[in-house]
Amino acid sequence: MKIVAFGASPSKNSINKKLATYAAGLFKDATVEVLDLNNFQMPVFSVDIEKEIGQHDLAKSFLDKITNADFLVVSLAENNGNYSAAFKNLFDWCSRISVKVFQEKPMLLMATSPGGRGGSSVLEIATNAFPRYGADIKATFSLPLFNDNFDVETGKISNSEMDYQLKKIVESIQLNFKNSNL
């Protein structure tokens, strides 16, 4: 199984990228590619810029990464209750190429934040919206209080109950994925 994972944040120290990396690494016998949103920076989308330059090569490259994946692990940063501007911009460019940005790929959709809600607002928005853009969301997971519940040095969830919950989600997804591909 080829997994493409990313944190939907441009932060060089993205807590969502750390969570996505950890979650993707829980899948057994999988090849994981972790994307960095900083490698997909484009001008702010507008129809005027699109008319001038056409479909952006970085948007095409991002869509190619999704095409080559069997499974997506996405952890959303929450900025003022919504997607980060960097992710929204990438998403806008990609959706102009193909409205089915996520190409019907199965997905583990997550969010984390330093706060007690764990990005639940953006997770709710994406859970409702992403299926219209080709996401086959198999499960969602929210990690609140990132700094208290994730050990950055080990790269793992330090809260045993939350870690168990994520591991059970991954185990269930992987079992269902395996059974559906027999």
UniProtKB/TrEMBL annotation:
This is FMN reductase. GO terms for molecular function: FMN binding; oxidoreductase activity. One of its GO terms (cellular component) is cytosol. It comes from Flavobacterium flevense. It comes from the Bacteria. It holds the Pfam family FMN_red. Residues 1-131 form the NADPH-dependent FMN reductase-like domain. InterPro entries: Flavoprotein-like_sf, FMN_Rdtase-like_dom, NAD(P)H-dep_reductase.
